[in-house]
Amino acid sequence: MPLLHAIILGIIQGLTEFLPVSSSAHLALIPWALGWNDQGLSFDIALHVGTVLAVVAYFFRDWVQVIAQGFGLNIGSDPAIRRNPKLLWLLVLGSVPAGIAGLLVKDLAENVWRNNQYLIGSMLILVGLFMWWADSQGSRRKDLGNVSPADSLTIGAAQALALVPGVSRSGITICAGLLRNLDRATAARFSFLLATPAIAGAAAKDAWDLMRHGGGIAGIPADMRSALVVGVIVSAISGALTIQFFLNFLRRRPLTFFVWYRVIFGIIVIALATFFRYHGG
């Protein structure tokens, strides 16, 4: 893989994993539109490792406080987290739906849905319209200190839907948080905390599958290793910067820009798929 491709895909992963625009859609569609070869499972793992590093690094102090308080230790200074000492177990609870869904439909999502441009385009549009509606609902009065088991399960169930390409993990979970009356920044923050074990788990399962089929580091071609390292670094840096930008954005603005982006992008995807279908592309 050319290093330029690795850099571009790393940037795309870092941006779209945390913005509500669907990383799976962009990683499937951009190589398809540009005529690139499929990047392969090992490179997908590298990109996921990069975004795991980004979210863990950015929320490191939050995670230390959340884990410590979950085991009865009074560590950390965030007042909202301090008011919710069971937040660790709420995150565990919220991770269950996506874990179950991943075991049931992951192969279908990666090998069938990922190659269906009509499905991806439709989900980009439909979830974009759902984001517009959800952003106008709810009281937006709750922070992390007020997150309940019902909130966690609702947001976790929404995260399970993100296995469908085009849905967007951050987009659908932020919508669920807004409908549960979380403010925008808190909905995004809880979404990113909840995404940490989900992204790490997906990367770990992919790595296990790769090793089980004779892959692993020793099985990665020498000409791919530099691209893998570059992909991890670029996706980690772009991911951390994206998290900071998006949280600041949500403190001041609604989701309207991302709604329009999704709808326009979805229309373009469906139009291109139709064009290629009827012109032998």
Largest sheet: none
Strand content: under 5%
Please work out how many helical segments DSSP would assign: 12
Q: What is the gyration radius calculated from CA atoms?
A: 19 Å
Low-confidence stretches: none
Structural class: mainly alpha
Question: What oligomeric state do the depicted chains represent?
Answer: single chain
H/E element sequence = HHHHHHHHHHHH
Mean pLDDT: 86
Anisotropy-based shape:
globular
- The end-to-end distance, rounded to whole angstroms, is 23 Å
Kindly state the number of beta strands. Answer: 0
- Structural domain tally: 1
- Helix amount, in percent? over 70%
Q: How would you describe this structure to a colleague?
A:
By secondary structure, the chain is mostly helical. 44% of the residues are buried. The two termini are 23 Å apart. The protein has one domain. The mean pLDDT is 86. It has helices at residues 3-18, 23-34, 41-58, 60-70, 79-82, 87-111, 117-135, 149-161, 169-179, 184-212, 222-252, 256-278. It is built from 12 helices and no strands.
